[in-house]
């Protein structure tokens, strides 16, 4: 009869497999629904008198123009994108409604709208609202039919945006407020077509679905003038999501209380077992990846500081016309892309280092593959970033933008050629890690083989899921693009990177002799199931207002609440990690990797847990999406969790790569605390208070106002932006200290005076 631990392990594997099959099956089913129910793209927008306002070609080409200048890096559509410029769909809607009210006021009362009393204004609003909300799309002809009055309003709003995206002195102040360079779209016809895309995106937000009383975007954004208020389903599923979260936390707490700590503590070994790991040529070749990590990290911080400064001067940096050479759309694109790239590079290098370390096997030509992948990463970064600059500067042309320029989709905006190249690189990484891990996964004598299997599963998922970025074409509907790109953005970050992290950290503690392989396997499998239960289907909370149906809100709210469940007990996990770090004197060698793991636990609870759930429910997201409250969650979760973890994993690998080099503890101590303090100040002094002010503005006047130049140029906002300086500076100092530490390991290394074994023996005494 099989031992009980083996039976439990098998059941957990079967449970994990069933969970993944069901979860991805539901995701594909919802995807089919999105394909069928996305807001229609009309063949033409035509007046009742027969005048063609926009054609489908106008709208689609206009979207390509918007993407080529940065897309979601210049403001946002349906709440997804940058925070400085407006949400174009929300602002167009408000401007169009106000233009119609002005025309109606002049027609009925002979006065300006602002000159009317409250009852007269309310009467006009009541007259206008049904016209805005009525769905006049005819699926037989493919036409959206509008009134002549609405066509006049559209022409006025279009003229405004054609001025904004030119070099017209009349709107120069707005370009400065939006951090747009002068004449961002030089071609006048391109500007006209782009207004067609803005109109269509706005039309979908306020037009009721056929046979329904809510719009294609579930009434997002908030606009009281046209009845864009939260739907009943947003209220209902927000309440249920909170109940699901409480129930999930209670069940997990019960499980932890019943099953945790039942095993007799393991006596740690007298000496560091990791010393026995033979560093192979391919493992040694990963060192250059960590140099690249620090280089990309420092450049990302520089781009972040530049991007933040644009909120103050708009087009300049202390008087220098920076926007003419390095526009905001470029700095923000590079800032967000570099955040993903340096963290991913740290994780890729960790996988390449740990593969041979786990199995003790160095495959043939492994070092060559590691070096080739490194060169490919550099080519992708340089090529993709250069293409984005040429695109935003309008030097590439629409014909080549999709393939080599700027796709305009936040976090997935590199050209399609570079996406394909990166996918091939990830497949090479998967191959290199997999063949190194294979002996460990096959060996029944290796008690960590299940952890190796999970590590391999996560590498497979990380590699293959990037293929979702290849599932859309240049003309694919924006709702469908949003669906596929969050397969990458969400499932990488809140799905399989979690599995990778849990498996890697568990392996480290097993290898150090601090945790039994059998118990670690069970714990890792159970944790993976818990993460995947909320992590996979939790993707749908990104799609509430992306042109999808109520089923997405119901499913997303129910499941995404479970993402918080494993984070509720993160403090207990941190305590276990801390106990392990003090289990034996030689663990002092791993103090700083473990300190960064502890920081991961803290920011997992605060950034991913508290700030994540703050904006996670449908009702909260309705008012908070695209405000600085989402930025607070994004910064504290992305760097606080995955950035800190990337640095911790890097330090563990560096301890193995440079085993006899004396570590400059002061550099790491300073870097650790300044980065954590700087990140906290960034959130507390700027992002959170700005987000709260935007939330209040949205509740009182509408989403358009919370994102408007009028609101963002207030003195209190300028003050809050300047208050980022202390946090950003302290954070940057921490990054420089860590980079200096890494550099000194090779440039000016100090050797331990005693042989390794003697030093450990002396420490043990």
From TrEMBL:
- Which terms are listed as keywords in the entry? Membrane, Transmembrane, Transmembrane helix
The membrane-spanning stretches of this chain are 12-31, 235-254, 289-312, 334-356, 368-391, 418-438, 450-472, 484-510, 522-545, 551-572, 592-615, 635-654, 666-688, 729-747
Q: Where is the Nitric oxide reductase subunit B cytochrome c-like domain?
A: 42-222
Has UniProt tagged this entry with the keyword Cell wall biogenesis/degradation? no
What is the name of the protein in this document? Nitric-oxide reductase large subunit
């Amino acid at each position: 009869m099989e031992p009980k631990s083996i039976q439990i392990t098998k059941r957990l594997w079967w449970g994990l497999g069933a969970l993944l099959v069901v979860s991805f099956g539901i995701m594909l089913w919802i995807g089919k629904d999105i394909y069928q129910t996305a807001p229609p793209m009309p063949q033409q927008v035509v007046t009742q008198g027969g005048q063609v306002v926009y054609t489908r070609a106008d709208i689609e080409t206009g979207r390509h123009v918007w993407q080529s200048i940065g897309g979601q890096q210049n403001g946002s559509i349906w709440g997804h994108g940058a925070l400085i410029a407006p949400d174009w769909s929300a602002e167009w809607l408000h401007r169009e409604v106000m233009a119609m009210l002005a025309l109606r006021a002049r027609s009925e009362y002979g006065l300006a709208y602002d000159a009317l009393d409250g009852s007269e204004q309310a009467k006009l609003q009541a007259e206008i609202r049904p016209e805005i909300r009525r769905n006049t799309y005819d699926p037989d002809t493919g036409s959206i039919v509008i009134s002549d009055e609405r066509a006049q309003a559209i022409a006025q709003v279009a003229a405004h945006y054609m001025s904004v995206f030119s070099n017209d002195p009349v709107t120069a102040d707005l370009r400065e407020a939006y951090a747009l360079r002068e004449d961002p779209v030089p071609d006048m016809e391109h500007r006209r077509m782009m207004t067609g895309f803005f109109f269509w995106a706005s039309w979908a937000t306020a037009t009721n679905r056929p046979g329904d009383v809510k719009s294609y975007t579930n009434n997002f954004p908030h606009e009281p003038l046209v009845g864009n208020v939260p739907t009943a389903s947003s209220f209902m599923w927000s309440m249920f999501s909170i109940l699901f979260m409480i129930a999930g936390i209670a069940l997990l707490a019960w499980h932890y209380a019943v099953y945790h700590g039942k095993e007799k503590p393991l006596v740690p070994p007298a000496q560091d077992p990791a010393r026995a790991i033979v560093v192979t040529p391919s493992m040694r070749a990963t060192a250059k990846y960590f140099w690249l990590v620090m280089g990309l990290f420092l450049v990302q911080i520089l781009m972040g500081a530049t991007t933040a400064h644009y909120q103050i001067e708009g087009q300049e940096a202390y008087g220098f016309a920076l926007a003419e050479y390095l526009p905001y759309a470029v700095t923000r694109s590079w800032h967000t892309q570099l955040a993903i790239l340096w963290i991913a590079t740290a994780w890729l290098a960790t996988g390449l280092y740990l593969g041979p370390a786990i199995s003790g096997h160095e495959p043939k030509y492994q070092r060559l593959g590691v070096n080739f992948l490194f060169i490919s990463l550099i080519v992708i970064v340089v090529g993709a970033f250069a293409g984005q600059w040429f695109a935003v500067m309008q030097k590439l042309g629409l014909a080549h933008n999709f393939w080599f320029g700027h796709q305009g989709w936040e976090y997935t905006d590199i050209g399609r050629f570079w996406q394909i190249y990166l996918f091939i690189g990830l497949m090479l990484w998967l191959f290199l890690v997999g063949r190194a891990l294979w002996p460990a996964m096959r060996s029944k004598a290796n008690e960590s083989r299940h952890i190796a299997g999970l590590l391999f599963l996560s590498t497979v998922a990380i590699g293959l899921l990037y293929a979702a970025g290849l599932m859309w074409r240049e003309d694919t509907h924006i709702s469908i693009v949003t669906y596929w790109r969050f397969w990458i953005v969400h499932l990488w970050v809140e799905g399989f990177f979690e599995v990778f992290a849990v498996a890697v950290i568990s392996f480290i503690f097993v290898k150090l002799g601090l945790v039994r392989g059998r118990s670690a396997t069970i714990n890792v499998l159970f944790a993976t199931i818990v993460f995947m239960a909320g992590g996979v289907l939790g993707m749908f909370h990104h799609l509430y207002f992306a042109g999808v149906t109520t089923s997405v809100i119901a499913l997303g709210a129910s499941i995404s609440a479970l993402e918080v469940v494993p984070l509720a007990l993160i403090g207990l996990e941190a305590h276990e990690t801390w106990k392990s770090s003090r289990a034996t004197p030689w663990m002092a060698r791993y103090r700083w990797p473990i300190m960064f793991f502890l920081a991961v636990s803290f920011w997992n609870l605060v950034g991913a847990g508290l700030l994540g759930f703050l904006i996670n429910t449908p009702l909260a997201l309705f008012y908070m999406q695209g405000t600085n409250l989402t930025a607070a969650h994004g910064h504290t979760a992305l760097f606080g969790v995955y950035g800190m973890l990337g640095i911790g994993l890097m330090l563990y690998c560096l301890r193995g790569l440079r085993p006899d080099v004396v570590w400059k503890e002061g550099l790491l101590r300073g870097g650790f605390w300044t980065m954590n303090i700087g990140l906290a100040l960034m959130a507390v002094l700027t992002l959170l208070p700005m987000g709260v002010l935007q939330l209040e503005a949205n509740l009182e006047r509408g989403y358009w106002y919370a994102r408007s130049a009028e609101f963002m140029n207030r003195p209190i906002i300028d003050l809050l932006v300047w208050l980022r300086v202390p946090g950003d500076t302290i954070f940057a100092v921490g990054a420089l200290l860590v980079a200096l530490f890494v550099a000194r390991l090779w440039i000016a290394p100090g050797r331990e005076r005693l042989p390794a074994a003697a030093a450990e023996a002396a420490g043990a005494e």
